[in-house]
């Protein structure tokens, strides 16, 4: 065990004593690590978890709330674009799947019950190789893979047959079959039938995201119950054998713990990532957990998987949640500086300076680099973010536009231009007026266009004299204007 990991475990041990508790839950440890701004690297996760178990510091049970049942509301409440019709369709499909798999869930030990319809093996290079088929295993079309394909085919056929029956009935109806008395007291609303047709069409045109959510919810509904420790060990041993049966055991171990992903993703809402993105990251964490799980270590897979699910989610939040992406290694540096700043504040009782933080951080860090990293840690705020009790304002409404001149300043400047132009016209002759206007870009020519600032070289070339001569004429004109007091009082009003 390296020194850094050993120091972290000692801190966790002290925290447990401070809380007067023999064991801490996984949530307690994660919250404490987040509080002290410590992130455990992936390659040290197994070692830390193993040491916590050996020291009897962590409970081998799923945290309270992580094993709660997951229903359609857990996901659809977070997705505004799922319609009520889609939710109803998902619920109906969940009920159908639960009824079909009721017998399968009674006994998990038989190979035919290790369903593997969702192929999660694409995430793992170890399982992307060609399967080794077991001669002792009887493969048949009765497996869940074939069942799922048959279900889809049957569903499509039923839809086609229903449409054909509807068309046939509409053609078979004649005028003689219609009884007028049945319509006397009822108002015929043809729009209802049109609405039903359009609603059916809309349900079949789910967006890609909603379609993924729909299937995900169906599988959680089918595999909603967590395994006990003996069942997890049996699947883990089956998985270690490899081959087709091992892959199916692996898939079932993942699917039966999917509710852990949903319940842990809830804890990281409103941190910059959408709920569906949190679920996606949690899925990658549980896949990594099943790759690394070693049943001989003695702890349950569900508790082991929770570590990797939260690790994947917290890493994604740190890496992707910001508007401007900050690399993970820089986030770790920011956390270390924050921790040092807190420690120095506790020791000295005052806010530490950047120089003190840099000195304690070491590694050649300077105060300037500390200030730069602090600046990175400032979260940007959208100018379009709604504020106010009724969200009727945005930040952009309160930001001053420096490029816009206020009406008062604009009117004052225009008046100053008029007064200055009047002074130049009354005080100077025409040749002096043109030269000083071209030199400073003031006044207008005979066509009413403003003069542009002209360098000494162009003025000298235009008049056929040297630059020095132009400079002498310029100084002479400025002295003439300065000594003219006839209009000077008007200029004083603009410079009070």
UniProtKB/TrEMBL annotation:
Q: Which Pfam families match?
A: Sigma70_r1_2 (PF00140), Sigma70_r2 (PF04542), Sigma70_r3 (PF04539), Sigma70_r4 (PF04545)
Chain residue ranges for the region called Disordered: 132-168
Show the stretches that span the lipid bilayer: none
Compositionally skewed regions (Acidic residues) per UniProt:
132-153
- The protein's organism comes out as Mycoplasma miroungigenitalium
Segment forming the signal sequence: none
Question: Which spans of this chain does the record mark as coiled coil?
Answer: none
Q: GO MF terms on file?
A: DNA binding; sigma factor activity
The Gene Ontology biological process terms listed for this entry are:
DNA-templated transcription initiation
Ranges for the RNA polymerase sigma-70 region 1.2 domain?
Answer: 211-244
- How is this protein named in the record? RNA polymerase sigma factor
Q: Which family does the entry's similarity section mention?
A: Belongs to the sigma-70 factor family.
Q: Where is the RNA polymerase sigma-70 region domain?
A: 253-323, 332-409, 428-482
Keyword DNA-binding included in the entry's annotation: yes
Keywords on this record?
A: DNA-binding, Sigma factor, Transcription, Transcription regulation
Stretches with biased composition (Basic residues): 157-168
